[in-house]
Amino acid sequence: SASHKILLLPGDGIGPEIMAQAVKIIDWLKAERGLNVDLSEDLVGGASLAKYDVPIRDEVIAKAKVADAVLFGSVGDPAWKDVPFDRRPEVAILRLRKDLNLYANLRPAKLFDPLLSASALKPDVVRGLDLMIVRETVGGVYFGEPRGIETLPDGTKRGINTEVYTTAEIERVARVAFDLARLRSGRVCSVEKGNVMESGLLWREVVTDLHKREYSDVTLTHMLADNCAMQLVRDPRQFDVMVTGNLFGDLLSDLASMLTGSLGMLPSATLGTPVGSDKRAALYEPIHGSAPDIAGKGIANPLAQILSLAMLLRYSLERGEDAALIEQAVSDVLASGLRTADIAAAGDTPVGTEEMGAAVLKAL
Amino acid sequence: SASHKILLLPGDGIGPEIMAQAVKIIDWLKAERGLNVDLSEDLVGGASLAKYDVPIRDEVIAKAKVADAVLFGSVGDPAWKDVPFDRRPEVAILRLRKDLNLYANLRPAKLFDPLLSASALKPDVVRGLDLMIVRETVGGVYFGEPRGIETLPDGTKRGINTEVYTTAEIERVARVAFDLARLRSGRVCSVEKGNVMESGLLWREVVTDLHKREYSDVTLTHMLADNCAMQLVRDPRQFDVMVTGNLFGDLLSDLASMLTGSLGMLPSATLGTPVGSDKRAALYEPIHGSAPDIAGKGIANPLAQILSLAMLLRYSLERGEDAALIEQAVSDVLASGLRTADIAAAGDTPVGTEEMGAAVLKAL
Ligand SMILES: CC(C)[C@H](C(=O)O)[C@@H](O)C(=O)O
Ligand SMILES: CC(C)[C@H](C(=O)O)[C@@H](O)C(=O)O
After folding, report:
1. Strand A187-192 with A219-224, pairing
2. For residue B273, is it left (φ>0), alpha (ψ between -120 and 50) or beta?
3. pLDDT tens digit sequence for B30-89
4. Which residues does the annotation list for site: Important for catalysis (chains A, B) (predicted)?
5. Rg of the Cα trace of chain A?
6. How far off is chain A from B147, nearest CA to CA, in Å?
7. Quick one: pLDDT at residue A109?
8. Whole-angstrom Cα distance, residue B207 to residue B175?
9. Is B93 labelled as part of a ligand binding site?
10. What is residue A294's three-state secondary structure?
11. CA atoms within 13 A on the CB side of B41
12. What ranges in chain B are assigned the alpha helix state H?
């Protein structure tokens, strides 16, 4: 088979440590399963700032554009907290999303049965939880203009950001949610704050229209974002596919993933089509952040990164079988009782990043 | 003592039913405790739309301005979901906040011990939870200009809202949080999304500066809003006083209150100083909404409204003793096992709104 291009961007904090475990699995797939990939790796975030003085270089963006998929670690480093706004580490992921037009971020919140006790919620509330938040990622207040901080005549300041959504931006991400719902439970809940924000009102209108025109087989409901934050705590299993804007999606998907109690387990995919290209682009990354507090200690959980690789194999390389093998290996390792510190229960002796990675490899 | 002016605005849905129970307690305080108040009542929200074709009349705003305090029920009514944006029921509360310059919304999330089992969270995670979110309520994306929906040349649309915060707006609400922290645990956590939004970056700067200048005895921490949503689920008791903008405060305070499992119990206060006045204005309301699904059935929990009255007595009328009496009566009634449907456990026979109100009155 033709060689696939994968760009690895480990980033900051625990990123490089967990990426190393995913790479071992790629090596195994090459040796044992005939995977034909052309790997390249580069720096982003604080790591790139340290070497190149920018959070991401244009040539990294260019490499990402021609890659079949990007496997991303995480960015964010307190060492760079006082840099100018446009040079902060986070710009790396924001530019990748924007420049590759990765507009739909799929964030599953799935509870792994053997980890049920890790959730802060009662078992009866979260058992079997398996929802998917589709978050818009190239629009909204993250990218709207005008933006910035201006100084007023009296020397005090004014910070401004702009939330913008167009019909086209809302439609394309809603389509992803509806299509996904057809493969799942056939239900979509669209979330906005249309009782206060006109951009949310338009969001609701556009989703409603699209539903009527093309997806009337799917059940569509609407929920205000504040109510949604409550409902996710009260009874998260009422949801299957959810679709929402960039900012609400940021909060609600983090909230939803924490319901599972095992953030270190959750992968995500961000999909889109770069402008001027007919190729689908995709970036895969753990839901968790760079966790600077535990970086370099060798104790981070590599499973979200490994499961992100599985998603990459399935959705970008059409290697669903390899993906299933990896997912099964992760299940087996968990069933065998192995735990990193983040998912360890009282009494467990946690293993480190390397050991967990090696165990998955062995289970393959 | 001089007569205090209280404006009652029951609003929509369950608002009138629960307000009626609070009024009975006011009557008791007049008869038994020498409370000297001058009550007036008016329509807001859908109720006002039905009679006057506007969600709130200017004369109601004027009455609110001269009142010592407003006791508010709730607004929101699906019957008015298709009215133009500036006529929706919610405009009533938004205008009251804005026109009275009620910039600091104090939202406690306090767990009532006898209701511990009502929470979706494990008892060990939420036992004794008692945090306070100070939410900015007259700025941010709720009121920023430009805003609206415009039609593009091709007939599709564009929805716009603007998030704006100035140094002065941030400082005054942060002050409320710091002052409150001095009366509580001495800790404030400030929440924004300064890694993505310049308005959040300014928020963090201004809070940091104010802290350095005037409140260095208080412990200040900062947290990103997405992380905060997670931390509220993972370990809510790490927080005491939190301060955040209008939109994040909307989501995070609803989330926090749901952690207690008893939304029907939680009061709130919104404080400020009308421009051109030297009098402190205040509005007290339950955290829960108008609950149209159970409106008119006589089963709503009146306790959040009754506890809102207690807050009003304490903070606006300097009648802390009366407030304490009411709070004690509510505790006693809960301890006696009485439950409305929303806080009933399996096996309880829930009582209705009237019965619960009467029980509090009797316990006084
Ligand atoms: C790192 C940060 C810019 C990013 C975001 O806010 O989108 C992160 O929180 C996420 O959710 O991927
Ligand atoms: C009714 C609505 C406009 C309001 C808000 O969004 O502020 C409500 O959700 C609240 O939190 O008081």
Report:
1. parallel
2. beta
3. 999 999 999 999 999 999 999 999 999 999 999 999 999 999 999 999 999 889 999 999
4. 142, 193
5. 20
6. 7
7. 96
8. 9
9. no
10. helix
11. 10
12. 15-33, 46-52, 58-66, 91-99, 123-126, 167-183, 198-214, 225-234, 246-259, 303-315, 320-335, 353-363
CA distance A30 to chain B (A): 37
pLDDT value, residue B278: 78
Strand partners, B130: B110
pLDDT of residue B1: 58
Structure token pair of residue B244: 């955040």
Q: Both tokens of residue A12?
A: 């900051």
Report how far ligand 2's centroid is from the alpha carbon of A184 (Å). 33
Mean pLDDT of all residues belonging to chain B: 96
pLDDT tens digits for range A325-350:
999 999 999 999 999 999 998 889 99
Q: Give the ligand whose atoms come closest to the C-alpha of residue A140.
A: 1
- With contact defined as beta carbons under 8 Å apart, do B72 and B18 qualify? no
Distance CA A103, CA A139 (A): 8
Helix B246-259 / helix A246-259 crossing angle, nearest 10 deg = 20
Q: Which residues of A227-260 are buried (b: 16+ CB within 10 A; e: fewer)?
A: bbbbbbbbebeebbbbbbbbbbbbbbbbbbbbbb
Low-confidence ranges of chain B (pLDDT < 50): none
pLDDT of residue B346: 86
At residue A1, the pLDDT reads: 58
Chains A, B: CB contacts under 8 A, how many? 192
Q: String of b and e for A139-169 (b: at least 16 CB within 10 Å)?
A: bbbbbbeebebeeeeeeebbbbbbbbbbbeb
Q: Which residue in B160, B221, B342 has the most chain A C-beta atoms within 10 A of its own C-beta, making it the best mutation to test that interface?
A: B160
CB contact under 8 A, A122 and B122: yes
Could you give the strand order of the β-sheet that contains B187-192, starting from the edge strand earlier in sequence?
Answer: B37-41, B4-11, B69-74, B281-286, B267-272, B104-110, B130-136, B241-244, B187-192, B219-224
Low pLDDT (below 70) residues in chain A: 1
A135 is in an annotated binding site: yes
Q: Chain A 216-275, CB below 8 Å of chain B: which residues?
A: 225-227, 229-230, 232-235, 247-248, 250-252, 254-255, 257-259, 263
Instruction: Report which secondary-structure segment, H or E, holds B155.
Output: none
pLDDT recorded at residue B310 = 97
pLDDT score, position B81:
85
The tokens for A199 are: 């951009």
Domains in chain A with CATH codes: 1-101+273-364 (3.40.718.10), 107-265 (3.40.718.10)
User: Is the overall model pTM greater than 0.85, yes or no?
Assistant: yes
Q: How do strand A130-136 and strand A104-110 relate by DSSP bridges?
A: antiparallel
Per 3-state DSSP, chain A is made up of helix, strand and coil in percentages (nearest 5) of: 50, 25, 30
Burial class (CB in 10 A: 0-12, 13-18, 19+), B149: middle
Chain A residue numbers touching B160 (CB-CB < 8 A): 144, 162-164, 198-199
Cβ of B324 less than 6 Å from ligand 1: no
Q: What is the DSSP string of A202-242?
A: HHHHHHHHHHHHH-TTSEEEEEEHHHHHHHHHH-GGG-SEE
